[in-house]
Amino acid sequence: MKADPAVQRRLLELAEVDTELGRINHRRRTLPELEEIGQAERDLQTKRDSLVSSQTSFDDIDQEVKRLENEVEQVRAREGRDRKLMEAGGSSKQLEDLQHELETLSRRRGALEDDLLEVMERREALETEVGYARDAVSTAETALEDAQGRRDEAVKDLDIAEAKRDAERSAFVNDLPEDLLALYDRIREQRGAGAGLLQGGRCGVCRIELDRTALTRVREAAADEVVRCEECGAILVRTKESGL
């Protein structure tokens, strides 16, 4: 393949733009904020799971409190009914039975009230735990939003830089022959870089020094001949700096 030496030199500028585009894409994939977001998302999920667990425990014990309160009210209602019956009078046997039942009910109410007090204390502790869990979730959400905001800002800057480089690339591409550009792009897709400066007998892409035979071949090639590195396949662009 042949191409005007000046056109070949344009490949170096294109390669520089493509290298910068590669750096931009690499930075986009490896933004530190991405790892922060991943960690923040995991932390938030852990905090949410903890909140669900705490809330479930609170709901369960709240139901237990309501059950005990209902039982206490039932016992008190029964005590009130028995006292009214005693006040209404009756046989000694009836009054004795009522008195015995009242004593039983009193003991039952006392046990229930003790249980209720204990459960209410546990509910209060769990309520505090739920509050802490909610605060932890809120803090984790804020941390995630902060990391996402910083990522968005970083991506915005990269988008601007990428758009600028894309515009530069389009300008270079429009000035290059289709066959030369196709070769360059094919090499770049396969090797990561399509062209490099030959300088001091060394390929500007793979940085390997050409042996004497390869260097002679390049030196003897016509100025408009498109030559390639035998090691990496990149187009070797020859300039005054090549020292040929």
UniProtKB/TrEMBL annotation:
Superkingdom: Bacteria
Domain C4-type zinc ribbon: 202-236
Lineage summary: Bacteria, Bacillati, Actinomycetota, Actinomycetes, Actinopolysporales
Coiled-coil residue spans: 51-164
Protein keywords: Coiled coil
Residue span, CT398-like coiled coil hairpin domain: 14-192
UniProt protein name: Nucleic acid-binding Zn-ribbon protein
Residues annotated as signal peptide: none
Organism: Haloactinomyces albus
